[in-house]
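Work through what follows:
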Amino acid sequence: MFETLKQPAPDKILTLIALLRDDPRPNKVDLGVGVYKDREGRTPIMQSVREAEQVLFAEQTTKTYLGLAGDTTFDTLMTGLVLGDAAPAARVRAIQTPGGSGALRILFDLLHRAKPDATVWVSDPTWPNHVPMIEASGLAHASYPYFDATTGTVRFEAMLAALAQAKPNDVVLLHGCCHNPTGANLTFEQWRAVGRLLLEKNLFPFVDIAYQGFGEGLDADAAGVRLLAALVPAMCVATSCSKNFSVYRDRVGCAILLAPSAAEADLACSQLGSVARANYSMPPDHGAAAVRIILGDPARRAAWTVEVDAIRARMIALREGLAAALRKHTGTERFDFVARHRGMFSRLGLSVEQVHRLRAEHAIYMVEDSRVNVAGLPDDRLDDVAHAIVAVL
């Protein structure tokens, strides 16, 4: 049965995890894996989540299934967190999913059912798992220019020019905020220009927003997706609670649909439930229930917001500190974009050889495309990290 199978290409991030684990050097620095880390290098459970779990433990009386849509109160609260009041509730539907990846996969599958000949346009570069999930759904994909590694800025005119070549009903995959892997984001005016192009060319927007709150703030980070929701007749959104609630292993996500009418929203959501049933049947409940308890209680929500704000402020401080240290060691402004970018990631523009040298000579681990997880930077060793980076240039 299995003799015809071939070994899949190794996942570069998982390979990096193994290399880091086996490295005995005490000063090793992990800038690879995309999880938030505190000053001690831990990924802690947020206090607001811990308290919500205690409430859940005391109140939960059953572990029976909730249904294909999961926790419907969670769905409503997550839709509000992402979309606010940008779109009429009658045209919006949502279902709970196993993480943001689960939301992406079932939405791609739904779009394949709806428009099997559509092409999904993805940014160059994009999150490495986007393309495999698009291919697994059966959809075609193409890329649009996005990041200028020399300047650390968005190639916006080139992006618009490429998307202008898309055919009607093609799908445009956009990062809602905190672009992964570059950290370079669209301005609000650029979001507006993208919205105009989507309408003009009859393109379908698909927003992946996995880091809401890690860029400029919970509402500011959702400004682009909310602008589109108020502008276009239909779109879909994949959102994740992994980062901003730090519930990575609990797999908490939400797939959101906006349709031109309530009737079409119902139809699309019923098909989305059918897709979910064929993929994983029912979503996990524990993490989503904790998120629901937080978002549904004003005091708990306020406390959680304070925690998210603190995480964001720390990452911005790390960005500014690393940029300053690199400026000192290079004598140039080459890496100043690190301070301007937002979210967990930035791409430093190093070669694969330079990344390998950092690993071998300085025990600094990052993905081969030189994406660094800013949250993995050691607060008290930014100068050492900067010195090592400059040493391999």
Remarks:
- The chain has 15 helices and 13 strands.
- The first helix runs from residue 12 to 22.
